[in-house]
Structure formats: C-alpha cells, structure tokens
Amino acid sequence: MGMCLPCLGGAADDVVVTPDPETRRQQLAEAAEKRQKETAYRGVKNPEAVERKRKKQEESEKQEMTASVSGGGGLKWQVG
C-alpha cells in the first residue's frame, strides 16, 4: 500500500493548466487558419507561385474594371 503514495505526491506536477477562454479562442482560430491553408494548397508543389499568379490575375481584373468604368475600355462607336 505504501508503494502508491510516492507516485501520488508528484501528481500535482502533471496537471495541465487550461488557458483562459480568450487565449484558447485565439489558438483555435490560428489552428483553423493553418488547416484551411494546408487544404487549399494540397497537391500544389509551389504554393508561392500559385499565390503570385492569383494576385497578378486579381490586379489585371481590377485594372480592367477601372478602365471600363473610366474610359469605356478604349473602344468607341463611330456612327455614320
């Protein structure tokens, strides 16, 4: 019986302290972002290149939108 008591004395050292709710929420949010990023680039050998290509495409679309709004896209109708 006396053999179990020494191991119970160190049990207080093994207790895991639970972080406060705000810290826990932040950790869960970071983990969720990491999972989403990993699944988004699953099977892609070079995720940086994909990201650069996507940004370049977004910029070109944005330029097209501003050009079409401001100048009509550079094409003008000629009548007669």
From TrEMBL:
The keyword Membrane does not apply. Keywords: Lipoprotein, Myristate, Palmitate. GO terms for biological process: negative regulation of ERAD pathway; negative regulation of retrograde protein transport, ER to cytosol; negative regulation of VCP-NPL4-UFD1 AAA ATPase complex assembly; positive regulation of autophagy. The keyword Transferase does not apply. Pfam families: SVIP (PF15811). Residues 21-40, 48-64 have a biased composition (Basic and acidic residues). Coiled coil: none annotated. Residues 70-80 have a biased composition (Gly residues). One of its GO terms (cellular component) is endoplasmic reticulum membrane. Residues 21-80 are annotated as: Disordered. This is Small VCP interacting protein. The gene is svip.
